[in-house]
Design brief:
With 328 residues, this protein is an alpha/beta fold. It folds into two domains: 138 residues, NAD(P)-binding Rossmann-like Domain (Rossmann fold, 3-Layer(aba) Sandwich); 167 residues, Dihydrodipicolinate Reductase, domain 2 (2-Layer Sandwich). The protein has eleven helices and 15 strands. Helix 3 packs parallel to helix 4, helix 5 runs antiparallel to helix 11 and helix 6 packs across helix 9. The chain is globular, with a radius of gyration of 20 Å.
Amino acid sequence: MTRLRVGCVGTGFIAGQHLRALAGFDDVEVVAVADTVLERAQQAADRSGGRAYGDGLTLLDSEDLDAVWLCVPPFAHGALETAAIAHGVPFFVEKPLGLDLPAAQELADQVSASGLTTAVGYHWRHLEVVHRAAELLARTPAQLVTGYWLDKTPAVPWWPQRAYSGSQVIEQTTHVFDLARTLAGEVASVAAAERAASDGRGDVPAAASALLRFVSGAVGSISSARVLGWRHRVALHVVAEGLVVELSERGLTDHELRVVTAHGEEVLRSDQDPIRTEDREFLDVLLGRAAQVRVPYHEALRTHALACAADRSARDGRPVGLPDPEGR
């Protein structure tokens, strides 16, 4: 059996989820793990039987890899992807693609020129409940879209600083923007506002809200808040003609689809592990068992552009238009 030699840069929560998933596949060998805190890298590498590195660039320079997972904070993107491309190593990268749009656009051009297989961790795209919602809305298009990411402030020290996380909109709520694109299509323009932080815990806004106008003519809003002591709601609600579709996430393996019509409602609960599913898909493409990934880098760039537009509109106080993918 062919075993792919893979590495992972990062050992935080989401990296741990990917490493756990990879450890469950018998056609994968995690040969190296990197983290800026070498002790954490060593602990993760010991679990996989691989080597530990104090930074990802050294890992990419030193190892002969079939693929690499880049699970780093927003401020750490750029050099790692460029190095993977230079070494010809296909990469899976966690969202967001970076702090801003220009750097991600430049990387997208490099990826396109290289022809490398890439994937990005918008894991909702892999959920069967999302596929079911998309099927319903393909027959009855969205008219109104309402999304939420209402949560606590993450404990990691870099997150409340806009210079390191981008913002809650870019770092977290990007998942909800991606789901809105998946279910309602591309967005033509966004007008947003934000409430400044006042708790002394950095300059990431306490709350933000974006009004969306979709290419289809649908309208919507997506709101974020980081001022709670718990995760209250991560969800997207879509209203169509005679139909309401509600998707919510309570945890990585706890999702719910609620479909409401005049005849009643249907509730589907899912304990599917979307991290395992997206990792398996990426591996299968590399092994020639699947044709393509659901979210390659150039597709994720559209969601990143939308989240960045919402963030920029809130900062600047004016609407931001997005390019029509059909050129209209």
